[in-house]
Amino acid sequence: MMKSYHKISILALLTIMMSGCLGDLEVEPIDSNLITSANVYKTTADYKKGLAKLYATFALSGQQGPAGQPDIAGIDEGFGNYLRQYWNCQELTTEEAVISWNDATIKDFHAQTWSPTDVFIGAIYSRIMYTVALSNEFIRATDGNSDPDISKFHAEARFLRALAYSHAIDMFGNPSFVTEADLPGAFFPEQISRADLFAYVESELIAIESDLGAPKFEYGRADKAAAWMLLAKLYLNAEVYIGQPKYTEAIAVLDKVLAGPYSISTEYLQNFVADNNTSPELIFPITYDGNNTQSFGGMVYLIHAQIGGTMSASEMFGTGDAWAGLRTTSALVNKFDLDNDTRALFWTDGQSLEINDIGVFSDGYAITKFRNRKLDGSLSESNHNVHVDTDWPMFRLADANLMYAEAVLRGGTGGSRAEALSLVNELRERAYGDASGNITDAELTLDFILDERARELFWEGHRRTDLVRFGVFTGGSYLWPWKGNVKEGRATETHRDLFPIPSAELGANPNLEQNDDY
Length: 518
What we know:
By secondary structure, the protein is mainly alpha-helical. It has 18 helices and eight strands. A two-stranded antiparallel sheet has the order 1-5. α10 (about 245-260) packs antiparallel against α14 (about 395-410). The longest helix is centred in the first third of the chain and has 24 residues, at about 120-140. The chain starts with 9 loop residues before the first helix and ends in a 10-residue tail after the last helix.
């Protein structure tokens, strides 16, 4: 698939879904021009196009790009993009990011004052379920196919569904649940418990491992290593999700990742530029191409919204747009050795460290992490003025290093503290250019790991999950600027460790019950 997506009409896909209710009748439509599951897939190439649509649900927001035929209704198409809303939920709710805009309830994320009627929470819930629905249909269409390529496509679709459901586990806990066994038609999906959905996703990832491609078999496609990373994340957060520690299991699958064909890039920035597809540490990206994957969400949002003030959109970032929205708080900045740590990608010219007004772009340091120029500074391949070539690094090896260290510190067996220290210092040697930033065994603590994850992985969509796992996302033990909508930060309610089931979903499905205290 590389860095573009084949397109298949959503009308065709919806027609296929509805045709599933004919099931046992084994009929064919009289109109030969009607697209159904019986005739849309005729060749392996057709199946690959259908699979590409599943990948595209994370990157794009509609059928024609960048706007005009949205996948979901009720929200501006750019705002309704999966990656954009997932990033907002994971980052704007934490100390790592604030946004100056006044779109609807967007500032409620950082203030941790959202409600079940929040349009953005509704959007990410809908995007998750949209990906699940399309994946279910593709899984039905490929089930039992003996062609080795199509069998691999089938496993990839199950991975993508598991990925979407893992986000539901993390953010909503107890969502509605449908699989390929639930044929399309008029019914109310059942609600599944967090523990049962955890068990389902775990079983899916284990079941498909042998059918997925070998690590790095094709850039941009889910392979065995992507499944290992997702499984490791599931296990690392198991105490939150199901109340049971699974750190030993996390170490076992991380060992597979660490033994794979990945290595830590010598340049930190290589993971976040227009040619980051060349980075040796990217395990699973969401791919973008300025000509072929156009959306006002995703990487266009993350690159353009971080540019403003005295920053040059063209010279540094390779784009013509500066949306002046996203910055960070002093709580993140203060975790860095600003003079020596090359990961401190902050723009300070014209920016104040402290935020007096979230709505003012110059309040708070800006971030220069994501760029639409190549590592050597040259223009991106597409050289588009708005749309970008930079891929989203959903899973990369540095994260595996830190997960392994954390799992060891939390008591997982099968790993070693010496290896954990070595993996952490590998990242710090890249950051400092030498061993001057290395830590000792005594300094390797869980508190250090939480801060190091911020330094290494900031703005990569992990922070809310990390803070919840460490028990400091809500409550008052860790405060940051404007947490709880107070400049100094205040304690927030612990039920906000989960988002609410959207009110619209509750109204449409009588089988759903709201999360506690919403």
